[in-house]
Amino acid sequence: MIEESKQTEQTENIDPNVAEENNNSAHLETELNAEATATDAPLDQEAFSAADAAEWEEMEAEIAALEQEVAGLKVQLDERTSQYMRIAADFDNFRKRSQKEKEELDQQVKCSTLGALLPVVDNFERAQAQIKPQTDAEKNIHKSYQSIYKQMVTALKSLGVSPMRPKGQEFNPNLHEAAIQEPTNEYPEGTVIEELIPGYFLGERVLRHAVVKVAAQGEHMIPSEESQPAESPES
């Protein structure tokens, strides 16, 4: 009992810092013993290698599957891109064709409408050439309808209508209609010598063909016997 009380007194008299160092030392020794025990335990290298190989093979299979999937998606993308380009090209061709057909239809309607007005212009021009007003009343009437004629001509010009004026040009069946062929030596054969019905353009398009008179090969004069000089009696 006396010894135990002494030990108790000694324990109570120990410095707290010394006690803490002792505890830390005991803790470190325990951890070192545990590491030594773990190091001394043999590792199953064969099991580890087999598991690693299996995992690697699985990863390779997944990569191959992903590469195959990417290749398939690339093929689909190429097909969709090609299909889109074909659709875009077809649409562009359709748009151009529709625009061209619309312009052609507008031009046909315009030509039909303006072509119906040309005979009115012809009548004005015939009246201008044939009628010679004498009295003041006739001159006023003549002046009135000539004013209307000028307005119509101005309107036609604003729409792109222009006269052909083929006189002196070579006959062109795409522009002219030959109504008469007249033998003459004044013009080369095939030359338009007179415009009987005026022709007109609408822009670069023929609105109405010109009806014309065309020069044919002229008749060459053959000297008669009377016109030939008489031979001299001495010859």
TrEMBL record:
Residues 1-27 are annotated as: Disordered. The keyword Lipid biosynthesis does not apply. The keyword Cytoplasm applies. Keywords: Chaperone, Coiled coil, Cytoplasm, Stress response. It is found in: Cytoplasm. NCBIfam families: PRK14143.1. PANTHER family: GRPE PROTEIN, GRPE PROTEIN HOMOLOG, MITOCHONDRIAL. This is Protein GrpE. The gene is grpE.
